[in-house]
Amino acid sequence: xxxxxxxxxxxxxxxxxxxxxxxxGEMGGQVGDQGVLVNDDETIEVLDTKRxxxxxxxxxxxxxxxxxxxxxxxxxxxKRNASAANHTATHLLDYALKQVLGDHVEQKGxxxxxxxxxxxxxxxxxxxxxxLRQVEQLVNQMIREDFPLDEHRDTPLEEAKALGxxxxxxxxxxxxxxxxRFGPSCxxxxxxxATSTGRIGFFKIMSESSVAAGIRxxxxxTGKACEDAIYAATxxxxxxxxxxxxxxDLKASIEKFISEHDELRKELERFxxxxxxxxxxxxxxxxxxxNGVSVITAVLPIEPAAAKDLVFKLREAVPQKLVxxxxxxxxxxxxxxxxxxxxxxxxxxxxxxxxxxxxAKLIQGGGGGQPHYAQAGGKNIDGxxxxxxxxxxxxNL
Length: 397
Hints:
With 397 residues, this protein is α+β, with helices and mostly antiparallel strands. The protein has helices at residues 77-101, 129-144, 157-162, 223-243, 250-284, 304-317, 342-347, 352-359, 384-395; strands spanning 2-8, 11-17, 35-38, 43-46, 48-52, 55-60, 72-75, 107-112, 117-122, 150-156, 176-182, 185-188, 203-212, 215-222, 288-290, 293-300, 322-328, 335-340, 366-369, 373-377.
């Protein structure tokens, strides 16, 4: 047994090379094996396995007590089988994509571990839901047909091509290669695979997205992870049905709820608009004139959006010589809103964004905005009146 000590980000671990090993080293987008090295004296956990110079490098946290001792290398077969199933599924997915989308599809990368299946491929547009469903159906059909692993090791390159093996664009291959076939799917590959497609269990695409120009990504689940996802989806559906009194037509119930919600929202918006209009009229009736400037101040229990709407309506009503400061206290959260007319900005050099930052300190908050309009939130609702007064003081009227 040979080893070397490695320290990264203050973490120390050891890389071991064994005389013989069943551990697969990470390669080609497939993660390395985990497991243990065992003898009568101790058990060493293998955290990961890398590939370097055609050798498997075993990553451990602690060195064996006796480096000359014999160990039994035991792979975590549950994780390996899950990774193998995901890897085999990428081969079937590659084949299915070509059948559904066209021969222009090329694999551009992949990543598989016991719980993850990610596959990147060339395609010029978003894959439609209907096309994704066709891909899923084709992959699952190949799984049900339970095609056995047909493996050809040390196959001359030209002979492998004659078998119809698909090469990954940009990959370099030696004179002899390994060919992996599952029914109609045939590829160059050096990774670990399921013994047959039936071992995958089931295949479900979870997402399709763009990762670069002309490159799409599919993320999918297989086996137990797929089963768990179906259980989670079923539980969600049952919870939704319970929310709607276990209705038999959940879609219709949700559509009715959304329609009623939209109507209520519109009605609430109309009510809020009317409330803002009434508040505007009330404040206009209480304007204070200070050195020829219309000053409007108030602390009201209104929503932030309503406060914004209110000051803009006040600006419409009083287009010149206006200073408006509204403190709002909805949901026990202080919000300060400041509005100046354009002439106050130009002639008096007032800047709402700058003034509000200073005044917001009294509500333990901050904010900003434009010279004529700004908002600031805070934490101390008790300081709201003082903050409103501070804005007026800083306006230097």
